[in-house]
Amino acid sequence: MNKTIKICMIGAGRVGKNHSRTLNCFVPGSEIVAIVDPVTEFLLATADEFGIPNRYSSLEEALGKCEFDAVVITTPTPTHRDLAITAANHGKHVFLEKPMALNLKECDDITHGAKSAGVHLQLGFMRRFSPEFVAAYSRIQAGEIGEIMMVKSLTNGPGLPPAWARDLATSNGMLAEVNSHDWDSVRWLMGSNYQRVFTEVANFKGKANNVDTPHFYDNAIVNIKFESGGLGSISGICPCGYGYDARVEVYGSLGIMQIGQMQGQAVVVCTNRDQGLVSPIFRTWPERFANGYIFEMQHFINCIKTDTEPSVGGFDGRWAVAGVLAATKSMLENRPITLDEILK
Amino acid sequence: MNKTIKICMIGAGRVGKNHSRTLNCFVPGSEIVAIVDPVTEFLLATADEFGIPNRYSSLEEALGKCEFDAVVITTPTPTHRDLAITAANHGKHVFLEKPMALNLKECDDITHGAKSAGVHLQLGFMRRFSPEFVAAYSRIQAGEIGEIMMVKSLTNGPGLPPAWARDLATSNGMLAEVNSHDWDSVRWLMGSNYQRVFTEVANFKGKANNVDTPHFYDNAIVNIKFESGGLGSISGICPCGYGYDARVEVYGSLGIMQIGQMQGQAVVVCTNRDQGLVSPIFRTWPERFANGYIFEMQHFINCIKTDTEPSVGGFDGRWAVAGVLAATKSMLENRPITLDEILK
Amino acid sequence: MNKTIKICMIGAGRVGKNHSRTLNCFVPGSEIVAIVDPVTEFLLATADEFGIPNRYSSLEEALGKCEFDAVVITTPTPTHRDLAITAANHGKHVFLEKPMALNLKECDDITHGAKSAGVHLQLGFMRRFSPEFVAAYSRIQAGEIGEIMMVKSLTNGPGLPPAWARDLATSNGMLAEVNSHDWDSVRWLMGSNYQRVFTEVANFKGKANNVDTPHFYDNAIVNIKFESGGLGSISGICPCGYGYDARVEVYGSLGIMQIGQMQGQAVVVCTNRDQGLVSPIFRTWPERFANGYIFEMQHFINCIKTDTEPSVGGFDGRWAVAGVLAATKSMLENRPITLDEILK
Amino acid sequence: MNKTIKICMIGAGRVGKNHSRTLNCFVPGSEIVAIVDPVTEFLLATADEFGIPNRYSSLEEALGKCEFDAVVITTPTPTHRDLAITAANHGKHVFLEKPMALNLKECDDITHGAKSAGVHLQLGFMRRFSPEFVAAYSRIQAGEIGEIMMVKSLTNGPGLPPAWARDLATSNGMLAEVNSHDWDSVRWLMGSNYQRVFTEVANFKGKANNVDTPHFYDNAIVNIKFESGGLGSISGICPCGYGYDARVEVYGSLGIMQIGQMQGQAVVVCTNRDQGLVSPIFRTWPERFANGYIFEMQHFINCIKTDTEPSVGGFDGRWAVAGVLAATKSMLENRPITLDEILK
Predict the structure, then answer these.
(1) What is the predicted pLDDT for the residue at B1?
(2) pLDDT for residue C1 is more than 70
């Protein structure tokens, strides 16, 4: 099937812009024909920036007035379930950003909705398509570092998340909005599901940022025990200020593997010997995972064209949500939480 | 102009494959409609691999039977002049690989041919589009490291070049075929033309590779004095075996800037403490400059669409050839050569 | 006081050898005049290797037959209390290896013993003297990365610890024997004491190593909450096989600081482009902290000469033991442990 | 022989201070008993700083009034010949800083003087004792990177050398005073002598520094052809401002080896994502080669104690001077110079 895949972008914010740029500039065979956002100002700005011809205030409107093959959902988490199901029910393939949804019930609804409608559902875990993660996973699978004993993953983001993203009523907070990728990465690389988690959090910058959301935290470390017996650690700081930092270390019975680094472009400068060597850091997630975003979108388009199941879908999205729920419960109750308590 | 730019790929070898992959996978708005190669076996293999519908044994045949907007010339250097001029005369825009041609007369013919025909001519100096080089150039221009005093550039390639590429009768040898990029980079970053060069070469692997070409060398270092008074150094080793290594160091009155590195993917492994830490090296030039190839092709397509002069063209290609000719003369005559002797 | 400080080395094993080499080769103003070990074979081998003239099977024998100013205690943890107190009671200054002792009572006995005798007591936390840790601490103190929010410290050692060091009856296991340095480092760098810890452990290599010690683990991660509100993480793997890996990351309100690296000597080699770049890793702790061992011993000698209190002593040793006890209790009881439960 | 070796330090300037600190702090078995400098202010300051009891304005005075075993000569190059010969004639072992002397005749006088007197002569090529150079040399000798084809060595120093060090009448300039180490390193690592050199120099900062010395240059690149057929490059910038930068790259038939790096302490910080990662650079030569200075002094002391010939002596010092003389002649005459012209 060589026809161009027509996309409706849902959400005109930062993530929507990033995927629009990626599709426009690096994904031949796709075309963003429509964009949806209830906020007219954002809608028009993003549509103009990326030359998207059709602009709508709701998915329903888009479905009624425009033809397309797939949606890319980049809106806040609480909207995911309904948007995904609506799109699926109209026969549109669904690319869905993380976190998949607010709870396991919503995750199940989405997965069931896509399956019933016979459309493809891909979750936005772009790290699985980032070349260094792909290579690392493949080398781990090949046994290069032996049996996996420990996986540590960190994601620190530069800025304060929006209000909805730190309120437990509308989101599961930083562990969901920022660390979803870590939840997916450690499970994927360990090759085993979480069994027990314990969370410590801290709030260092909330006051200065006038955040009075209950349970707000900007630092978190989660200890994980996997079903395999392996250990894991996820940590996050947001806002960390210093850049977008996403690194993983995997320890196997035969050795260590480090995935990712802080350094961005290979340019090293020194103009002051009292300061020292200076090299770029990844400033933002679009920079850090530029290739991951390209390859996940190429995968999505290719899965549609070849009618193939995406390699990362609702099952993975649901597990990440389960981890987040357990870790949040641990934070609230100050005790280790087994996944049984969440999955039951 | 939003129409798709139709390309005829000339040359089905390694470079032709690389540009075909780049255009197909990462350059929306372009389409390779034809490919030309006199060797049927290569022609069909590459055409099949990249789904190119029309296959021809000569540019003339392609021009007669197929419609396209531009050519990408990837054939051996001695063919460049005639192919470029023929394409230009038929109104096709020309993307021309380095080295531009065998001598300055041929370079002038090509530049004049493109200008007369009113088509765009872009030279294949992809480093100028590689993000770390782009950033470095911009920071140098902004004065970050002051006045440029010294530039060193090296390119070492893994394998033995083909026979035509090491015979002075059909090519200017390694300094042209491998180090053309260094010639362009040092001139670009220094912001000044070469004034004098001195070359030392060595032949360490010729015998083992059964190379009996006269004047064959596989190691070279060229000292350069620029018109600005600055100093430069270009070195090359081919075959070096250990990877594709392309790095530049620039020294300004205010400090140092290193551009590029040997390390490829950000994956570090240790499974043996007697061996130590192991990380990927760039194995080949398509790996090392993957982004450079994408962005130079996007630039070419965009220049055609917007009728803009490409940022790197015949003038730059001619200077690189002049440097190579001076350095080769220095090698043959064992003395420093001023560019006056070449440009007169 | 310019006289040479006379040392009695207690313990002729790996640590005793390391300190003997350090004192002999890099610490002018000191002289090892005696060595003590109950195992004659080790005693003579080490004494011969380092030219130590007087050899004894017990500290008591040494005290009776030889004159010296100080002892360096490098024997297994269960012997620390009695050796340290005996030496102090005879007016000898005490350099005591970590872990300080098996429990807080023993720690208190040692501190009290040294104080009563008026001798100096220095704990073997050499990281506090390792140049990169010294610089990091000083820069943190100067506020360079702001208020400290999170500290992560890991130590992975290549080989299986001896039997006594993994039995809870004679040692507090890996968290004590290997990770004592991490306990000290995170408290020192955070500038706050531990408040609560939670431990996960795993046993991946015990079986293959024929270890049947109860509660044996070779992988551990400890979550820490500090009194300051800051978070911490300590992890250890032993035997990890791949080298001696000790690294710390500190996150402050203004940024990140990484202390230490895996790479040893600045020699990078590539001879195989399929393998990639290879550089040395620190193979062992004597390699990794060579400078730390020199400077801690110079500090000890200098404190004796100038009658100055060592910068790291019993107070710090006791806190590291308290952390280990809490973390071990957490492991045994599968729940977070507050330090109150240990310190009460 | 276990007696303490008594040293007379000749020269109370930067190099004299550096060796005094090294001997005092890290070389058991040695003692600086006297120091010589004609400038009383420097003499007393350095003597006080390092607790050196006997201070003299001339070597002759020291020889008459004080007993010692060896001298460490750190004075300007023009004084080397007479000081070394005088010391040797009085039976003192000689540690002599680079460059060995101003010309080959002086070098021969020194070597002959030491040999006649039966004393040991060690040249101050501390890189041969720096652990990463030692390891690299040993690995090259073991054949790890095959036959050596190319060696590049650079030394850039932060500050302007003193007036005597840039005047061809009293010194051979930067190529001698700063790059002597490179001359020694490339010859040592290549395992072959220089056959031909060609030099380009530039003067970028002389005017701003009010330097009107004839032939002054602050940037230089030298191309080298070795007797083995291998190629080499030496470059220097002084003052470079940005730190003390000394790195070598060696290319063999089997691969590449990089020796040394710019990064100093393993501390990486980021507090500003627009600036990026910052890590220390070696600021000065005492920092960069701290270990090299320790081990070369330990070697010298040990050679005296065991009556062993130092591993680097007059023969090596003479070759470095020959290289400098050839490169300087090339600069003055704008042509490649064969070593025959210098050695005849």
Answers:
(1) 47
(2) no
Q: Is the pLDDT of residue A2 over 80?
A: no
Residue type, position D246, single letter: A
Identify the bridge partners of residue C10 per DSSP, sorted by sequence position.
C36, C73
Taking an 8 Å cut-off on Cβ atoms, the answer to whether D270 and C260 are in contact is no
Which residues pair with residue A49 across a beta bridge?
Answer: none
Interchain proximity D26–C28, CB inside 8 Å: yes
Please return the burial class of B141, using the count of CB atoms within 10 Å of its CB with bins 0-12, 13-18 and 19+: exposed
Cβ contact C276–B264 (<8 Å): yes
pLDDT tens digit sequence for D249-286: 999 999 999 999 999 999 999 999 999 999 999 999 99
Q: Are B261 and B241 within 8 A, CB to CB?
A: no
Instruction: Specify whether the CB–CB gap between A129 and A136 falls below 8 A.
Output: no
CA distance B270 to chain C (A): 6
Whole-number pLDDT of residue D329: 98
Which of C132, C195, C197, C200 should be substituted to probe chain A, the one whose Cβ sees the most A Cβ atoms within 10 Å? C200
- Contact yes or no for D144/C275 (Cβ under 8 A): no
Cα–Cα distance for residue pair A340/A319, rounded to 1 Å: 12
For A5-130, where are the alpha helices, taking DSSP H only? 14-26, 40-50, 59-65, 80-89, 104-117
State the sign of the Cα–Cα–Cα–Cα dihedral A300, A304, A307, A313: positive
Contact A258/B269, CB-based, under 8 Å? yes
**Residue in A with minimal Cα distance to D270:** A242
Q: Report the residue from B158, B273, B279 with minimal CB separation from C277.
A: B279
Interface probe for A, chosen from B267, B277, B282, B306 (most Cβ of A below 10 Å), is B267
Across the interface, whether the CB atoms of A200 and C201 are under 8 A apart is answered: no
- CA D3 – CA C83 distance, rounded (Å): 34
Give the distance from residue D284's alpha carbon to the nearest chain A alpha carbon, in angstroms: 9
In angstroms, rounded to a whole number, what is the distance separating the alpha carbons of residues C78 and C83? 10
Q: Which helix (H) or strand (E) holds C328?
A: helix C314-333
* From B270, B272, B281, residue closest to C273, measured CB to CB: B281
| CB pairs < 8 Å spanning A and D | 61
* Cβ(A217)–Cβ(A203) below 8 Å: yes
Tokens of B46: 């590459």
Tell me what the mean pLDDT of segment A329-333 comes to.
Answer: 98
Nearest to D176 by CA among D186, D162, D166: D166
Look at chain D and count its residues.
344
Contacts with B264 from chain C: Cβ below 8 Å: 276
What are the tens digits of pLDDT across the range C298-329?
999 999 999 999 999 999 999 999 999 999 99
Mark yes or no for CB contact B294/A139 under 8 Å.
no
Strand ranges in C57-173 using DSSP code E only, listed in sequence order: 70-73, 93-96, 121-123, 148-156
Q: Is C143 left (phi over 0), alpha (psi -120 to 50) or beta?
A: left
Rounded-to-integer distance, Cα D72 and Cα C64, Å? 44
pLDDT tens-digit series, residues C217-259: 999 999 999 999 999 999 999 999 999 999 999 999 999 999 9
Phi, psi of A254 (to 5 degrees): -105, -5
Nearest Cα of chain A lies from the Cα of C129 at a distance, in angstroms, of 22
ipTM: 0.96
